[in-house]
Amino acid sequence: MMVQKNARINGAVTGNRLNAALERLAQKNEKALAVFLMGGDPDPASCEELLQAAVEGGADIVEIGIPFSDPLADGPVIQNAAGRALAAGVTPSAVLELVRGLRRRSAVPIALLVYYNTVFHYGHHRFAASAAQCGADALIVPDLPFEEKDPLEEACRAHGLVLIRILAPGGSRARIQQIAADADGFLYCVSRPGVTGVREGLYEGLQDFIGEVRRSSTTRPLLLGFGISTPQQAQQAASLGDGVIVGSAL
What we know:
Layout: E1 7-9, E2 12-14, H1 17-27, E3 32-38, H2 44-56, E4 61-65, H3 76-87, H4 92-105, E5 110-113, H5 116-122, H6 124-134, E6 138-140, H7 150-158, E7 162-163, E8 165-167, H8 173-180, E9 187-190, H9 206-214, E10 222-225, H10 231-240, E11 243-246
Parallel strand pairs: 3-4, 3-11, 4-5, 5-6, 6-7, 8-9, 9-10, 10-11
Antiparallel strand pairs: 1-2
Helix pairs in contact: 2-4, 4-6, 6-7
């Protein structure tokens, strides 16, 4: 088992690259840019080059997807990316090797986007340990209900990983407060109802939604993702939150 070298202070994993990077950005009053690329798309060698290009291009956080056959939160662009990776024979282990390779070259925070079926198949502790040993800093599991997060969150904490919590528009104030409480890393604020994908404009209710999240007790940064497709949209979203997540447009 991996020796745990990180500690938790006020609910946050200290020594974690993600938390450290977010704190540095906040101190400089800068917004975070997180970029999403599907692991192994269109093939592992090309993806390795794309990940490095993202870092060199200025990404503050790199989010790498583990391809899955039924990506429920994703629109056609990312569905097709997953399909290409699967057709190329990309496995979760292959994506972890991409993480390992990127970590050898860069200290950029790395978050893995993974659907729960993959984690369940591995086992919570085995998956968390493998991800941490390869150099990942966080997991994003879009189809894991908040009420069922505890076993995986405990495994993540044991191995120094952050399990990112997701907030979507339409929830009650009490629900937002419940999910935001004791969050670590950042809060992934879904910037529009529905699935990922390029959009012509931002969700009309986004400002009200982010305002409601701001009124919760969280002290964690808010990163907005889903449908942020242009520099102008990114600027508008960043003015409401603490950073943006861009995937389909890339």
